Amino acid sequence: MTKAGWSTPKIACALYPFGAGAAAVNVFFASLILSWIGGPVLSTAQSLILGSAIGVPATWYFARHIRHLMDVADAGAETESSRS
For residues 8 and 63, is the Cβ–Cβ distance under 8 A? Predict the structure, then answer.
């Protein structure tokens, strides 16, 4: 079976802006929740920097998951085509 479509690194590069943005928002809201127990509230810049760092592995794992789903779908399509 050959892998058709985009590779994992290509998927990760395409999705990274969304992953980093989502991570930055989550970091900011987590800092708001932690402020209830005395933690600091992060600034926008701090949230973006930390979200950019957290977004790299998160996006990579999500891209691997998407690539796996593509492989499963391709395997199912090959099975269906061999039956007919």
Answer: yes
| Structural contact between residues 64 and 50, judged by C-beta atoms closer than 8 angstroms | no
As a whole number, mean pLDDT of residues 38-43 equals 96
The predicted pLDDT at position 1 comes to: 47
Residue 45 to residue 40: CA distance in whole angstroms: 14
Pair 55, 24: CB distance under 8 Å? yes
Q: How far apart are CA 78 and CA 18, in angstroms?
A: 32
pTM above 0.90, yes or no: no
Work out the angle at residue 18's Cα, subtended by the Cα atoms of residues 20 and 48, and round it to the nearest 5 degrees: 30
How far separated are the first and last CA of the chain, in Å rounded? 18
45 in Cβ contact with 2 (< 8 Å): no
